[in-house]
Structure formats: C-alpha cells, structure tokens
Design goal:
Largest sheet: 7 strands, mixed
Bound molecules: S-adenosylmethionine
Helix content: 25-40%
Distance between the termini: 59 Å
Number of helices: 10
CATH topology of the largest domain: Rossmann fold
CATH class of the largest domain: Alpha Beta
Amino acid sequence: MTVKAKKSLGQNFLIDRNVLSQIVDTVKIEGKAILEIGPGSGNLTSFIFKKNPQKIFVIEKDDDLALLLKEKFDNEINIINDDVLNIDANKICNEKLTVFGNLPYNISTEILSKWIIRLNNEFWFDSLVLMFQKEVADRIIAKTNTSNYGRLSILSNWKLNIKKIIDIKPESFSPKPKVDSSLLLFTPKDKFFKLKNPKNLEMITRVFFSQRRKMLKKPFNQVFKVPKKVSEKFNIDLNLRPQNLEPEVYFKLVKEFEESGS
Ligand code: SAM
C-alpha cells in the first residue's frame, strides 16, 4: 500500500537512516513504554521497535496511514487513530511514557504548549524527543536578551530541561520541507516554580510579548493595578523590554498576580 503525502497534515517522512538512528539513540528505549506522535508510514516506529521497547503506542490522525501501520506492524503496536490534540496523554498508560515525535509543523507549538499547561505535579513522561522546524526550536531554547526569546522559551523552561540534539536538513525527508529542522530533548525538572494556574503564565507572557519592542511600563500598566508597587518589589526597571527579564522573573510576576489579584 502506498500513500501520497498530505500537505495539510504536515506529512514529511523521515527517510535518512543516519538521522533515524540518531533519534532513537537519544534516550533509552529498551523495556520502556513508548508513545510516538504522528508515526506516518512508520519509519521512525521501525527504528524504535528494533530497540526492544516494552510497548509502543502511536497517535496518527490520518486514517490511510493508520491502516498502513496496522498492516505493517499488525498487533505489535497500539494504534490510536485520532488527533493528538484530542487525546489526554495522562490516560494512555500507567507507566511513564518516553515520547517521540517528528511533529506536524503546523501544530507543533500547540501540542507542546498544551502538554506543558496541562502538566500537573506528576509528569506522565520521562522524556520528550521532539522534532520542530528549526526556527521554532530556536525560540524554545532561546536565552534572555536575544530576539528569539519569548513566550515559548519561558513556558518550555518552566517545568522542563531542554537540550538540542541535532539539526536536520530538508534532504533527510520526503517530500522535502522548505525549512531546516531540529531535534530537542525535554526532561522534567526536579524543582519548578509553583503557580496556581498556568494559564496566567500564558496570559502574562502574551501581554508582554505582543509588544516586545515597547518598554515594560506598558504591559505592567495593563496587567497590574499598582504597577509601581510590583516593579519595586522585584526591583525591575520599567524602561527595560520584555526580552530582558529572565523566565524566573516572569514566574514571580505571575505568582504576584495570582496572589494579589493585581
Ligand atoms: N513520523 C513520521 C516520519 O518521521 O516519517 C511522519 C512525520 S510527519 C512530519 C507528521 C505526521 O503526523 C504525519 O504522519 C501526519 O499524518 C501526522 N499528523 C498530522 N496532524 C496530526 C494530528 N493532529 N494528530 C496526530 N497525528 C497527526
């Protein structure tokens, strides 16, 4: 059975065996429960399979590909033929999952943000090995005071350690995407800043970074009832820009907002 790649589902299949090997060498697979997002025609799945995991779950939205995977792997893997955005990953299995995904680029940040926002104190995974469009990966790993630093960097850094594994050229895929890709490894942080509602972190970073060239005065006035009090408490110069504040400062500002309602 051959399947034509569907652009609307971000289907760029990995065909470079070196890259596939590098991906499965990123973390231990043997004996682990694996979740793969968007397995496509099963190229990466086969490499994972060869490393003797305890079990594999895959979530694939495309009905044709889900059928193809069923033919290829029979009952050796658990196929969830659904949209990953509809799935509560907490409920897939009792063990901690090791997650792989050559993500569809149009929804990659949505998947990651949703997972982070919904994380409770018990992580449902021990690692995430995820491929992103390089430009998105650069934003995720960006440091304070750089132009790539923003909402995605702050949100990802909240509960996760992040490491870049490799950059991948378009030639490694079929069909070839127009952009480079990067593989990132995320692991849970032992300690992270406690917030009442992660949506407040989303909201505050949205307000701040939707006007990233403006001085901090403006978003402070929008978010806090008594901005001067908050800026003095945390010793923040309101003439700086949003990209000059470390993630930790944003977490503190969110906590202040949650506690004072201001
Ligand atoms: N993992 C395969 C590989 O590396 O060759 C395919 C990766 S391809 C970039 C993305 C895959 O995600 C496609 O198989 C696509 O059908 C699937 N996909 C797209 N949107 C999805 C969604 N919302 N939920 C689950 N799978 C999705």
